[in-house]
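Hi all, long-time lurker, first post. I run a small reading group and we've been trying to get comfortable going from sequence to structure in the token notation. Rather than ask abstract questions, I figured I'd post a concrete chain and ask someone more experienced to write out its structure so we can walk through it together at our next meeting. Sequence below, copied exactly:
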Amino acid sequence: MDMATGRCLRTFEGHAGEVRSVVISPDGRYGLSGSADKTLRLWDLATGRCLRTFEGHARCFINAVAVSPDGRHGLSGGEQTLQLWDLATGQCLLTFDGHTSSITSLAISPDGRHGLSAGDEVLRLWDLVTGLCLRTFEGHSSLVLSVAISPDGRYGLSGSYDKTLRLWDLATGSAYEHCVATRTM
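-- Answer (accepted) --
Happy to help. Here is the structure in token form:
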């Protein structure tokens, strides 16, 4: 979209199911999309061309995608499973298991070493080199819908159906505080 005019600059077509998550690479050249058709697609934003289709979430929709800060890797989340991809080759590098329901949101740390996933009522911090789950964050009473990592990589922020945001120390797992969301009319 042209921010000045609001005009759509390009339409990207190719998925056979609804697109559930999108992200733009840090250099602004590529888009990565995850779909209910169980694929990811890497797009050239300048031309609109699909550069690569990633297949590997054979059993499930892809609900969340993230791209590493260096633009070399993509992380995707589906039903209980995350996958780390080499965006240049299309190869699945690692598969992460641990959630008991669909992955709803993903974030990658600024140094590219860790991934934070949301699913069920918990967050999980993953080592993107070894594939190990480093820490599980518990405290929400309902499905976690969204996660983010602070620019310095120290904190994770999560939002849930339980109407709270929770700020987490990623090194210790401690929750700092939570704020109850309120609706204003």
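A couple of things your group might point at:
The longest strand covers residues 92-108.
Residues 19-145 form a domain with the Methylamine Dehydrogenase; Chain H fold (CATH 2.130.10.10).
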